[in-house]
Amino acid sequence: MSTLNQFILFSEYNKLMNQRILESAKQLTLEQLKGDRGAFFKSVLGTLNHILVGDIIWLKRFSIHPKNQKALEYITSLDHPASLDTILFDDLDSLRLVRKKVDEVLICWIAGLSEGDIETCLSYKNMAGIQQNKLLESLISHLFLHQVHHRGQVTTLISQSGVDFGDTDILEITDDLPA
Fold first, then answer.
1. CATH homologous superfamily for 3-173?
2. Domain coordinates of the chain in residue numbers?
3. What burial letters (b/e) apply to 162-175, b meaning 16+ CB within 10 Å?
4. Is-contact 25 158, C-beta < 8 A?
5. pLDDT digits over 56-89, tens only?
6. For the segment 111-155, what is each residue's pLDDT rounded down to a tens digit?
7. pLDDT, tens digit, 9 for 90 and up, residues 3-40
8. Which residues are within 8 A (CB) of 153 and not within 5 positions of it... i.e. 6 or more apart?
9. What letter would DSSP give residue 43?
């Protein structure tokens, strides 16, 4: 599987897992959603906000890449989060609406890239304002790994609250390869 095809798969997986997390989180009480559980971003809602914040920050950076800027127009219209622990939404319903749109934008943007595009470099400033120049392929990989890392934390917190999150295997959305 090419790297680009893998990114397409990851973008679909990302959407599915975000849908499942938000559906599972609806079963939690407000206290379970907002309570400090000792996670990096304290609560279920804090961590869900952080995942969205990370996606917005990275997609804003990707929007300066010459390829598919149009696909990322929605992202460029959003305010830039002030910090990684910014709470964009203090309720699940508002977060769900933007999360769904961001996932759709990500799928569209990835689908519009070519193998050549992901082999180019992107120059951007990190959160400390330091100029960086990195391979787009590595940055996209980071985006997806960041999501998986923090969704793992959320699924643990949800599970600790007595809600069965269900399957998280990417294998359920991949086609079987011929033997």
1. dinb family like domain (1.20.120.450)
2. 3-173
3. ebebeeeeeeeeee
4. yes
5. 999 999 999 877 778 999 999 999 999 999 999 9
6. 999 999 999 999 999 999 999 999 999 999 999 999 999 999 999
7. 999 999 999 999 999 999 999 999 999 999 999 998 89
8. 39, 40, 47
9. S
Q: Which two tokens stand for residue 129?
A: 């304002």
> What CA–CA distance (Å, rounded) separates 10 from 3?
10
pLDDT for residue 176 is more than 70 = no
- Which distant-in-sequence residues (6+ apart) come within 8 Å of 1 by Cβ? 9
**CA angle, 92 then 140 then 48, to 5°:** 15
Two tokens, residue 157: 């917190």
Q: Is 63 helix (H, G, I), strand (E, B) or coil?
A: coil
Residue in this structure with the two tokens 């998986």, named with its chain if needed: 148
Q: What is the amino acid identity at position 176? A: D
Give 93: exposed, middle or buried? Use CB within 10 Å, 0-12, 13-18, 19+.
exposed
DSSP conformational letter for 35? S
User: Are 64 and 136 a contacting pair, CB within 8 Å?
Assistant: no
